[in-house]
Amino acid sequence: MNILYIGDVMGEMGLQAVEKILPGLRAEHSIGLVIAQAENLSEGRGVLPEDFKRLQQAGVDFGTAGNWTTWHDETTPLLEDPAVPLLRPANYPDAPGPRYKYARTPKGDVLVVSLMGQVVGRDADKLIKNPLQAIDAILADEPADKRIATVVNLHGDFSSEKFIIGYYLDGRASIVVGDHWHVPTADADVLPKGTAHMTDVGMCGSLDSSLGVTFDSVLPRWRDGIQTRNQLETTGRTQFNALLVTIDETTGKAMHAESIRKVW
């Protein structure tokens, strides 16, 4: 079974990128499950129901989480409903909804877990539970025979943390992918025990920008130390980044992993 994990969908340009590219990819690669990082979906912050519906209509089956996921109150019912394919980070303090959910596919159920790194931007001072301990507890609670695959994303700032968790879960998860940087790393791989891993999958949205944000709105911050408000870029080139993984659904192990990057 082929599983596609799409990087952070950043605002309207990100949504349009998914709408443009995903239908063709699903057909070309016979993809059985599409998962997307949705925390930046609605104007760069959080997940509004109407935008998540558009993502689903474009062909996304499941949405993973990050530090902005709970930004809108309207998202809470989605997170709390076990039947809605949208997660909150399992180790994020006081977040609504279950720690994990299952994606239903014709070939069987896939366990999906979102984790937060221990240092992430505006949440750097929050007491976030150790992600390795959090995933250990979840995997201990969920018998392996309940699923054909396990997908884990780590939303974090540190490359070392996102790299290490891949090897930590090697052989216990089908896919471990990092996100939050919005810049893809050149290390898509299947690890020795059968886990597909990529340190950071990148983003979908504006390419000629600072991670989807206009240069004019962030340069004063870096040059002059002035606090400014992010403004999403809406012009220039567009990018689409994802990780495509082939899973052996009888073993839950990955057989092939490749990065997909499209720019126009």
Short description:
By secondary structure, this protein is α/β, with parallel strands linked by helices.
Structure classification: alpha/beta
User: N- to C-terminal separation?
Assistant: 29 Å
Helix content: 10-25%
Overall shape = globular
Number of β-strand runs: 13
**Rg measurement, Å:** 17 Å
Mean pLDDT score: 95
Oligomer: single chain
Please report which band the strand proportion falls in: under 5%, 5-15%, 15-25%, 25-35%, 35-45% or over 45%: 25-35%
Low-confidence stretches: none
> How would a crystallographer describe the biggest sheet?
7 strands, mixed
Secondary-structure element order, N to C: EEHEHEHEEHEHEEEEHEE
Tally the helices: what do you get? Answer: 6
Describe this structure in words.
There is one protein chain. The strands form 2 sheets. Strands 1, 2, 3, 4, 11, 12 and 13 form a 7-stranded mixed beta sheet that branches. This protein has a 6-stranded mixed beta sheet with strand order 5-6-7-8-10-9, covered by helices on one side. The mean pLDDT is 95. A hairpin with a 2-residue loop joins strand 5 and strand 6. With 264 residues, the chain is an alpha/beta fold. The radius of gyration is 17 Å and the shape is globular. The chain is built from 6 helices and 13 strands. Helices cover 24% and strands 28% of the residues.
SSE blueprint and pairings:
Blueprint: E1 2-6, E2 8-9, H1 11-29, E3 31-37, H2 49-57, E4 62-64, H3 76-80, E5 101-105, E6 108-116, H4 131-141, E7 149-155, H5 159-168, E8 175-179, E9 189-190, E10 196-198, E11 203-206, H6 215-224, E12 238-248, E13 253-263
Parallel strand pairs: 1-3, 2-11, 3-4, 6-7, 7-8, 8-10
Antiparallel strand pairs: 1-12, 5-6, 9-10, 11-12, 12-13
